[in-house]
Each structure stands twice: as C-alpha cells, then as structure tokens.
Amino acid sequence: MNCRVVVEAAVPVYDVETENEAIRIGISKTGEMLNPDLNYVEINMGTRTSPSGEELEPAFIAADEALVALELEMTVFNVEREEHASRIARKEIGQRLENIPLEVLRVEVIEDEDDTDEESESTSDSSPDDDALETADETAGDGEGSGSNDSDSDANEPSENDEETTATSSTGESSTDDEDDDVLPEFEELLE
C-alpha cells in the first residue's frame, strides 16, 4: 500500500517585517534543510483558522520574528498501515528539520489497483490494435498484388514470389520471409 502523508511544520523565521516575507523565507529555509536528501517532499503554505472559523495568514509575526505554518507532503511506498506511513514521514522529515515541531495532518491511501488496471488495459488495448494493423498491412499487400489488371506485372510477380518461397523453404530461413513482407509489391521490380 502506498500513502500520501501531509505533515504540518511550524518554521521559525527571524528579522522579518511582513507576512509575505516570512512565508518566502520559511519556504526557502525549509527547502534548504530538506534538499538534496528529500527533494521529493512538496512544500506548501499551511492554512490556519481562528477559533471562530476565520481564515488567517500562514505566518504569525511578533517582534520581527515569525512562526510560519507549512504543509510538507510526501509519498511513502510499501507500507502496511496508515500509522506506519505517518511514522516514516515524521522520521524522514524530522531528521532534516531539527528543532521544528511537526504534526501529521492527514494520510491518504493511494490506490495501487487503479494504476495496475490502467497499465493492463493500455497493454491489452495496444495489442489488438497492433494485430489489426498487421492484418490490415497483410490484406492491403495481398489486395494490391492480385487486384492489378496489368498482365505483365501479374505474370512476373507470382514467379518471383514462387522463387522466393522455394528459396526459403529449401534453406529453412525465415528471415527472407520477414524481408519480403517489408517490401510492397509495387517496389519489388526496383529492388531487382
């Protein structure tokens, strides 16, 4: 089972004057701590609400210092339970973000079966199409050779095909059959 884990981090930022500046610095600081080891962790602004339900900025500033709420998202692969995924995410992120409090907000199970079903459908869809194309190519090649009204070309083509067929049957090689299938009947005269 694969899980998408969202962890909230409270990142302290110093010497800032505005909330936007605090958010930019907080994201940059967090990115520096996570990279290059955890460059697959997505960093987003967190959401905060007041007790009355009012939306607040993700940064709180007091005395030129800010506390920025960030959401860190990562995918944890091959886990048995959601608890296991949340522990792995907290451990991996927490090792890089020292002295920054973390809290797991949510764990979403990513469906593996849909991915494998889509892959199997795409391979099964491509197989009949390939077979249909090959059958259409063979039919088109047969129809063009037998449908022409030119008696000279009809007389020459079967004899060439008969010679090639006997050559392949006597040698037992199937590579000449493959080469013959690649050449359209109209171009056989040019290859002689």
Automatic annotation (TrEMBL):
Residues 111-192 are annotated as: Disordered. Belongs to the UPF0212 family. HAMAP family: UPF0212. PANTHER family: UPF0212 PROTEIN MJ0068 (PTHR42199), UPF0212 PROTEIN TK1194 (PTHR42199:SF1). The lineage of its organism: Archaea, Methanobacteriati, Methanobacteriota, Stenosarchaea group, Halobacteria. It comes from Halostagnicola larsenii XH-48. NCBIfam families: PRK03922.1. This is UPF0212 protein HALLA_16085. Residues 111-141, 151-165, 175-192 have a biased composition (Acidic residues).
